[in-house]
Amino acid sequence: MSLLDEMYEDGQSDRQDELAQIHQSDIKQVQNLFQEFKVKRYNIVNVGFGDPLIKDELGKYHELDKEFTITEMKNKKGLNYGSHEFSYRHDAVILEDIPLKYVNKLTTLLVAPISSKKRRNSILLEKKYYPFLQNDSYILLNSITNIGIEKIYIANTKRRLSRQGQKVLYELTSPVQIKLKNVLSKIFSIT
Q1: Which residue of 7, 44, 155, 156 has the fewest CB atoms within a 10 Å radius of its CB?
Q2: What pTM did the predictor assign?
């Protein structure tokens, strides 16, 4: 191998290490947020679910030869393929238990998105009980997904977590939690 090839490989390796550190830093920031606010199951976070590749935000179809740069995809927090995947920025309910002693190892999270459009197997969240909502919304149980925690928007989530100067989490009310458990048990035939 020539000296020039070795120098090129070293440069590429350094850049990959730098990119890995940036990614790990994003994950660490969310882990720190979760630890600071003691985030747990049934708390509500703000998530970027990605954008569909077939249509843009205006509902116009992309050209078939459209190319996206890594920067564009990162700015969009991931791009989905297809037109029916759940996408864009939404609030979401955390569905898995997060033991605080393991929060520093957490890299993925099971969530159910919240949307203003009712769908099958959805649970109503009334605006009067959840003041951060713009209108009555629904937990979409047909769109449960596992996300990388770096897709959580820290600023929006933190704004919801810091209510009136206190570190108070927006959490589903007990009646909604019970209804959520019942609907999930029916969907997944859990007894």
Answers
A1: 155
A2: 0.82
Other CB atoms closer than 10 Å to residue 51's CB: what's the count? Answer: 22
Quick check: helix, strand or coil at residue 65?
coil
Extract the tokens encoding 35: 């630890």
CA 191/CA 183 separation, integer angstroms:
12
By three-state DSSP, how is residue 7 classified?
Answer: helix
**Distances from the Cα of 52 to the Cα of 18, 79, 85, 147, 186, angstroms:** 29, 6, 7, 16, 30
pLDDT tens digit string along 132-173? 888 999 999 989 999 999 999 998 888 776 665 555 568 888
- Distance set, CA 144 to CA 42, 52, 64, 131, 147 (Å): 13, 17, 29, 23, 10
Q: Name the residue type at position 54.
A: I
Beta carbons within 8 Å of 104's beta carbon, 6+ residues apart: 31, 35
Between CA 37 and CA 82 the distance in angstroms is 35
